[in-house]
Design brief:
Chain A is mainly alpha-helical and 335 residues long. Helix content of chain A is 70%, strand content 1%. Chain A has 2 domains: 49 residues, no CATH class; 231 residues, MetI-like (MetI-like fold, Orthogonal Bundle). Chain A is built from 18 helices and 2 strands. Classes of the chains: A mainly alpha (335), B mainly alpha (296).
Chain lengths: 335, 296
């Protein structure tokens, strides 16, 4: 009530554009802070016009975002309800793409594969780095800590593709490192396997490319989390006679829950979208043993030109990722 | 006091005195099993790459007789052959990633600055709109962005890479930079304004120089992301002369598979640029993550 009266006064006075006077004439009676007081004084449109300089500064960002982020996102959702075959104009087909998708045996197989890969990948990406971070954290020598920290970042420096190509070499049936080691150890029967070409082994071979499962960033994130735990807690624990392992269970784990959740979410998001691994190493084969939705989408779009169908795949994966992320964030709420 | 307590590794106070060689040895003895485990993991991390290095110096006959252990004499010609193909790709990557990084840092910083320091209608809405983009998995937008780029007739050009990368990269940059800028002392800006400086001048002459370290972290993250991006260049580029490094290596591998010597040499050359970058920026990189701990 008060506010509206003031607005009326101010616009009649015509001095609303001069901030000083508006504040000084009404600061006594208005209970609000100067900032929100301004909101009552000027109409929305006036405020927008006055802020036009700031909007202009934001333009470069938003133009780029509009063209390359927002529009494609909308296009993806929109395109999934059309049959956009390259070359033909799209016909509206409603949810038919999705119906076809859920009856598509290749797609179903790809979902099973990606779930297996993601589960395995997430478990290893979340748990193994915890141990490595713990070991580094509890080293007594600063120098050793520093050295290992740098070493563990190595996987993040090598381009992911180079790592994949190296694994392609390792898995090579005739010249590969893996088979050579197996032969050297005496497991001759295993040393002739075509790891990436065998339908039964290919998926596991793909999982193995993450060996030794110390993805560079994970260890660093956990380490940062561990180092932010106040030392006093450890002193108190030692006084109570808690051993190292007990400390780990009761102090470290609960206090790095935030980092664990971060790793969990990032791993799931990355795992479900996995595409380059199968693309480079197996092409989805043999016989779709390593097909994943991401690769299926890629093939449908670029090999077969079925843009609408491919968009539908993208939408399904998007919804799955979104749902899982939200689930994660609500289930593991910070206490 | 609080700083040293939080930043210290465990047991720092016990070893606060200067380390003598005997105390170093004691440290090592106590921790031997950790060193063993960490050593094993490090071995597995580096072993494939060491084998690559050793094979890169072999010619075909050396490989036939002794595939994995290093052999002499070192066949440097492999590097000649591979280098001729791979080094142009490296140059392409440097140019493309450099421009992208510059774009992300400049536009991202400007945008974050506006969000951090000024109030205007819809500020929070616009900000959350930007953050919402972080939720969209790249898989969803892969094909539509391709369609957009194709309609803009940018396919097979450097801009097909640079523009979408700037668009995507600035989201993360804005996210990180806004908090940082908001924490800068505002009195400096007030003083500058009284002296008659315009807002942009305040941004460029005061804000940016104060934020060098965080801008560096943003730059590095951006370079890492764009340098290693393989899928997007794969989808949008077809002429070899603009291939960035990673895509180039992929094609190179197609051509040279089972010509192991030069192939491995190519991989080694391909790893060098980032290793160099990392050597110069490792402090920034490791501490940028450690600052305050990044978590959800």
């Amino acid at each position: 009530m008060e506010a509206r009266k003031h607005r009326f006064h101010a616009s009649i006075a015509g001095s609303s554009l001069i901030e000083d006077t508006s504040v000084s004439t009404s600061v006594v009676t208005s209970p609000a802070t100067p900032l929100s007081y301004k909101k009552h004084k000027h109409s929305l449109w006036q405020r927008i016009v006055r802020a036009r300089y700031y909007y202009m500064l934001l333009l470069p960002c938003f133009i780029l975002l509009a063209i390359f982020c927002y529009y494609p996102a909308i296009l993806a959702l929109w395109g999934s309800i059309f049959t956009l075959d390259y070359g033909r104009s799209g016909e509206y087909v409603g949810l038919q793409n999705f119906r076809e998708l859920f009856n598509d045996p290749i797609f179903i197989k790809s979902v099973k594969n990606v779930v297996a890969l993601t589960v395995f990948g997430t478990i290893t990406a979340v748990t193994v780095p915890i141990f490595v971070a713990e070991w580094i954290f509890r080293l007594k020598s600063d120098r050793a800590q520093y050295i290992y920290r740098i070493l563990m970042v190595w996987p993040a420096i090598v381009p992911g593709l180079v790592t994949l190509l190296l694994w392609q070499f390792i898995y090579d049936p005739y010249y590969g490192l893996l088979n050579a080691i197996l032969k050297w150890v005496g497991l001759n029967e295993w040393s002739t396997k075509a790891w990436l070409a065998d339908p039964d082994l290919a998926l596991y071979a793909l999982m193995g490319t993450a060996f030794p499962f110390v993805g560079g960033i994970g260890v660093l994130i956990y380490l940062a989390g561990l180092q932010s735990i106040p030392v006093d807690i450890y002193d108190a624990a030692k006084l109570d006679g808690a051993s190292g392992f007990r400390q780990f269970l009761t102090i470290d784990l609960p206090l790095i829950k935030g980092q664990i959740r971060l790793n969990l979410v990032l791993s799931i998001i990355a795992g479900l979208q996995a595409l380059t691994g199968p693309l480079v190493l197996t092409g989805g084969g043999p016989v779709n043993a390593t097909m994943v939705p991401g690769l299926y989408m890629y093939q449908q779009a670029f090999t077969y030109g079925r843009l609408g169908y491919a968009s539908a795949i993208g939408v399904v994966v998007f919804i799955a990722v979104l749902a899982l992320t939200i689930l994660n964030m609500t289930l593991f709420k910070d206490d | 006091m609080a700083d040293t307590v939080l930043a210290a590794p465990l047991d720092e106070r016990e070893s606060a005195h200067a380390k003598t060689s005997s105390s170093r040895w004691k440290d090592f003895k106590d921790d031997w099993w950790k060193h063993l485990l960490l050593g094993i993991i490090s071995f597995f991390l580096f072993f494939p790459f060491l084998v690559t290095l050793s094979i890169s110096f072999k010619d075909l006959s050396q490989f036939a007789t002794q595939p994995f252990w290093p052999t002499l004499p070192l066949t440097w010609s492999n590097y000649d052959e591979a280098g001729r193909i791979v080094i142009p790709f490296i140059l392409n990557s440097i140019v493309i990633c450099g421009i992208t990084c510059l774009g992300v840092v400049l536009i991202g910083a400007l945008t974050a600055w506006v969000f951090a320091n000024y109030d205007f209608p819809g500020r929070e809405i616009l900000y959350y709109l930007i953050l919402a983009l972080l939720m969209i998995p790249s898989i969803l937008t892969l094909i539509p962005t391709f369609v957009v780029v194709s309609r803009l007739h940018l396919l097979d050009t450097r801009w097909a890479l640079i523009l979408p990368w700037i668009a995507g990269g600035q989201v993360f940059a804005i996210f990180i930079l806004r908090t940082f800028f908001a924490a800068l002392p505002k009195d400096l800006f007030e003083a500058a304004r009284l002296d008659g400086a315009g807002e942009l001048a305040i941004f460029a002459r005061i804000g940016l120089p104060l934020s060098k370290s965080i801008l560096g972290v943003v730059a590095i993250f951006n370079i890492l992301g764009t340098w290693n991006d393989f899928l997007w260049p794969l989808v949008t580029l077809t002429s070899k002369d603009i291939f960035p490094l990673v895509l180039g290596l992929y094609r190179f591998q197609d051509q040279y598979y089972s010509v192991w010597g030069p192939l491995m040499a190519g991989y080694v050359i391909g790893t060098i640029p980032l290793v160099i970058l990392f050597m110069f920026t490792s402090k920034l990189f490791v501490q940028g993550l450690a600052a305050g701990g990044i978590k959800l």
